[in-house]
Amino acid sequence: MDLEGATVDHVSEPDANPPYAYMMTGTEANSFYLAQVYWPDQSKAKVAEYIKKAATSKITEEGYKDGKYLGEFDYCEKSGWMYSIADRMTGNPSFPGVGAADWRLSDGEVMRWQFTVWGYGADLNADNSAWGQPSITGNSGDKTELTVMIAELRQVYGDKPMDNGISDGTNMPGVITREQLATILYRYAKQKGYDVSKSAALTAFSDADKVSGYAAEAMQWAVAEELLKGSNGKLNPQGSATRAQVATILMRFMENIAK
Q1: Contact indicator for 217, 242 with CB cutoff of 8 Å
Q2: What does the DSSP 8-state code read for residue 118?
């Protein structure tokens, strides 16, 4: 959605209820530029040390500390939103040198928007040697496979209601439980033809009886594959999966299952 007269400074944050999801300049069809994304209460966000060490200009964590919108110049003069293209056919990532409005997606391509803290994407594995800043991350910053997997999950489960407590994706702020996440990944693995033969008994966990019937097989598989690990003798299947937990589980899935 557009915001008339928007700039890319936090002093321009709109006094609107509900707030804008994002602020942009141009239009989706012409000269689109993603200026800021609504992301409040991120006062604990920290910049990785390897980025600070590689940066040749000062990085500050104060610019976004009290802001509601994450946008250009929040950490330094080389930070802001940028997009990359993940090719699900070849597995190749790319950072096109054209504006998002000018890129025409081909079949099998996925567009991913990411926030670069420094180096115009150098911290995202973008090679901007032509502008004086090569990648500083190596393959560790390449999220191509993860991007494609999330897009495929969204394609499979996001366009139709799912039975047994699995969201259809329309309630984006809604939480997801640990057993729901295990079920989504289990169904996705089966759909992709991955080996899902492993299974572990859940009796070692004191709250095994809390696992829903629809999720039992998926949870047994997830525990066997060590995607899910208990804490203090409990699996906490009904507990909400935190952002950090989801990231960890997805990484384990990519490294051990989707290889």
Answers
A1: no
A2: S
